[in-house]
Design brief:
alpha/beta; Urease, subunit C, domain 1; TIM Barrel; 8-stranded mixed β-sheet; 4-stranded parallel β-sheet; 17 helices; 16 strands; binds zinc ion
């Protein structure tokens, strides 16, 4: 049957396309058609060439197209504190270095630090991130400037922050952010009580009620380390998950960052309650928090996505690095080579992270879904031969091979340049602020 070709905004072709669809289809010599920010068609080149014409064509003969990577947990504004306090355990690092340093923030510094992180993430093919910070509206502005998708939570702490002298103010900020992002195509909110050890039971139950009322995810750090468990036992007489469950915080809207110090019965509990978990392997290793029982979580049926955590505890916002760490770490710990195979970690950095964040249209390239993608240069020596792009994603790519990043059909990064903002100007403004220099330990408060 002959029919005239349909017209679309953009045709994009590459040597390989890793769709991450339900069947995990990988096409060779293939591409996709983009119309109105959505994928209009995916498939082999000869089919697309027959069926479609376009205003614009992009060709990457030796490239690999992946769905945009999804950073399931970060604090983008913390780029200011990269290298500020390394080689310290979690509680020391957080309470003696990071929390005091963060007291010097202004809305502008939160926005600048977040935009720098957006630049870093886009350059590594990340199209969406979940973030928790005070002045989340400033993080939201950065995401908007960069054009990224983001799930944003105004961090709720039991102590004053520069943004909120009281919890009441933090909750008002959460309300205001929700209003501001109603109907926004690229940005969503979550409710973000920081953790068990920085909040009161009343704050946690209030946060859970907001998440129910707003029908949005509730994101919280929990079971990150044995030290946190010990602190929870002494403060509340309960382990962190027992505490959260008793307060009604473990449910299908809960997105739990870390989940390292978990008992077998707590893994079962997370599965029963439908809680999803974001695994941050490099942050957990660097802060000496331990190794999350990811194989057991997956076996129990828990949705697990990958995250970087903040740029001060990692110190990179790069999901290729997280995939690599995740694939190797669990094999090494369990002395079992078939744990966390390449396809599983790619899933955790794309479609499973999207599912964990309750944003299931992301993380896969399918007809009708958003045209959020990353193109990797497959011609580089460390990617030869291009026998299996999924194996290469987990074991060989480092993120620096990304040549194009797109959200909703819009190119946000190409060949080392960010299309929506001037990275040099941003770096100059950050150097003039000198926030990170001023807050080094020992500097006058
Ligand atoms: Zn975190």
């Amino acid at each position: 049957m002959h029919h005239s070709p349909r017209h679309c905004d953009l045709l994009l072709f590459a040597g390989h396309l890793v769709s991450q669809d339900d069947a995990r289809t990988i096409h060779a010599d293939a591409g996709l058609a983009v119309q109105d920010g959505l994928v209009a068609a995916v498939g082999p080149r000869h089919v697309l060439e027959q069926d479609w014409t376009a205003n614009r064509r992009l060709e990457f003969p030796e490239g690999v197209i992946f769905p945009g990577f999804i950073n399931g947990h970060t604090h983008a504004a913390m780029s200011w504190f990269r290298g500020l306090a390394d080689d310290l355990p979690l509680m020391d690092w957080l309470q003696r270095h990071i929390f005091p340093a963060e007291q010097r923030h202004t809305p502008r510094t939160v926005e600048l630090g977040s935009l720098l992180s957006c630049a870093e993430m886009l350059a590594a093919g990340i199209t969406c991130f979940a973030d928790m910070h005070f002045w989340a509206d400033a993080v939201a502005r950065a995401a908007h400037t960069a054009g990224m998708r983001a799930m944003l939570g105004e961090a709720i702490f039991g102590f004053p922050t520069p943004a909120s002298p009281t919890v009441k103010v933090a909750l008002e900020r959460a309300h205001t952010l929700r209003e501001a992002l109603q109907g926004d195509a690229r940005r969503r909110i979550c409710v973000a009580p920081h953790s068990v050890y920085t909040t009161t039971p009343a704050m946690l139950t209030h946060a859970a009620a907001l998440s129910d009322m707003w029908e949005c995810p509730i994101c919280i750090h929990a079971a990150e380390s044995a030290a946190e468990t010990a602190q929870s036992l002494s403060q509340h007489g309960r382990r962190p998950l027992e505490h959260l469950d008793a307060l009604g915080l473990l449910g299908p809207r809960t997105v739990l960052a870390h989940g390292v110090d978990l008992l077998p019965r707590e893994i079962e509990l997370l599965a029963e309650r439908g809680v999803s978990v974001i695994h941050n392997p490099r942050s957990n290793m660097k802060l000496a928090s331990g190794v999350a029982p990811v194989p057991a979580l997956l076996a129990a049926g828990v949705a697990v996505g990958l995250g970087t955590d903040g740029p001060a505890s990692n110190n990179q916002l790069n999901l290729f690095a997280e995939m690599h760490a995740c694939a190797l770490l669990h094999k090494g710990v369990h002395k079992q080579a078939d744990l966390l195979p390449a396809q599983a970690v790619l899933d955790m950095a794309t479609r499973h992270a999207a599912d964990a964040l309750h944003w299931p249209t992301l993380g896969r390239l399918v007809v009708g879904g958003p045209a959020d993608l990353a193109v990797v240069d497959g011609s580089l020596p460390h990617l030869q031969p291009m026998a299996d792009p999924v194996a290469h994603a987990a074991y060989s790519m480092h993120g620096g091979e990304v040549v194009l990043t797109m959200v909703a059909g819009e190119i946000l990064y190409q060949d080392g340049r960010h299309t929506r903002f001037d990275l040099d100007a941003l770096r100059r403004e950050m150097q003039d602020c000198r926030l990170s220099a001023d807050v080094r330990p020992g500097a006058a408060a």
